[in-house]
Amino acid sequence: MSPVEVPSNGSAMEPAGPAEEAKPRSTSEPAGNVEKIRDILFGSQMREYEHRFARLEETLLKESSDLRETTRKRVDALENYIRQEFEALEGRLKGERAERASLGEALARRIGDMHDQTSTALRDMRGSALQQSKDLSDEIERRHQEMANTLEKRFQELRKDKTDRAALAALFTEVAMRLTDDFQVPGVDA
Q1: Domains of the chain, residue spans
Q2: Which candidate, 32, 35, 33, places its Cα nearest to that of 43?
Q3: What distance in Å separates the CA atoms of residue 102 and residue 110, rounded to the nearest whole number?
Q4: CA atoms 47, 52, 53, 54: torsion sign
Q5: How many CA atoms lie within 13 A of 147 on its CB side?
Q6: What is the pTM assigned to this prediction?
Q7: Confidence grade of residue 17 (pLDDT, cut at 50, 70, 90)
Q8: How far is residue 172's CA from residue 44's CA, in Å, rounded to a whole number?
Q9: For a tag site, which of 18, 118, 128, 183 has the least CB within 10 Å?
Q10: Burial call 11-41: b when 16+ CB within 10 Å, e when fewer
Q11: Residue 12 to residues 4, 34, 38, 55, 164: CA-CA distances in angstroms?
Q12: Rounded Cα–Cα distance for residues 31 and 33 (Å)
């Protein structure tokens, strides 16, 4: 048996040996007989191979289609998952931004309130210190006036109650004269 080449269309060809190529074919040789012989010898195997190749091609096409569909579904699912994750991250990011903005506003308000409270407390302290200073100044002035009045009063009392030097000198002179009996009381004869 000589090897036979099978073309892609499934029909059998004659062997391409060097001796046969040189022989010209005669038109009298029945080509149909060779085909029948080939079909008898290799026909069932060729049909079986063709049937197997067809089933294999069909299986490969089906698996390829299934693989393509599965891959498409997985890619779609992955795209959806990534989209959802990005949306969730975007939502969290917006929430954090809003929270930070809210915290910033609350902090700014609190700082403003503390500034206002500090300003108010400082203004109150200044007012209180000014009032205490005025009160203290008034108290000092009042005490000074009281002391000046008391001093003047005491001075006047001392001036009123003090003995005049001339009168005191006359009194001592009179006492001295009485002690020495040189004093004479007018209107009394000695």
Answers
A1: 36-159
A2: 35
A3: 12
A4: positive
A5: 6
A6: 0.36
A7: very low
A8: 183
A9: 18
A10: ebeeeeeeeeeeeeeeeeeeeeeeeeebeee
A11: 7, 10, 7, 21, 174
A12: 5
Tell me the two tokens of residue 58. 């069909």
No. of helices (H) and no. of strands (E), the chain: 3, 0
Name the one residue in this structure whose structure tokens are 């005025």.
Answer: 134
Chain centre to alpha carbon of residue 152 = 76
Q: How far apart are CA 63 and CA 57, in angstroms?
A: 10
Q: Give the long-range contacts of residues 47-54, CB within 8 A, separation 24 or more.
A: 49/6, 50/10
pLDDT in tens, 150-178: 888 887 877 776 667 777 788 888 888 88
* Tokens (6 digits) for 68: 């393509």
Tokens of 128: 């209180």
How far are the Cα atoms of 3, 56, 161 from residue 150, in angstroms, in the given order? Answer: 155, 135, 16
For the record, the structure tokens of 123 come out as: 């203004």
Per-residue H/E/C for 36-48 = HHHHHHHHHHHHH
Task: Give the ranges where 6-30 is alpha helix by DSSP (H).
Answer: 18-22
- 183 within 8 A of 174, measured Cβ to Cβ: yes
- Taking the chain, what is the end-to-end CA distance rounded to the nearest angstrom? 210
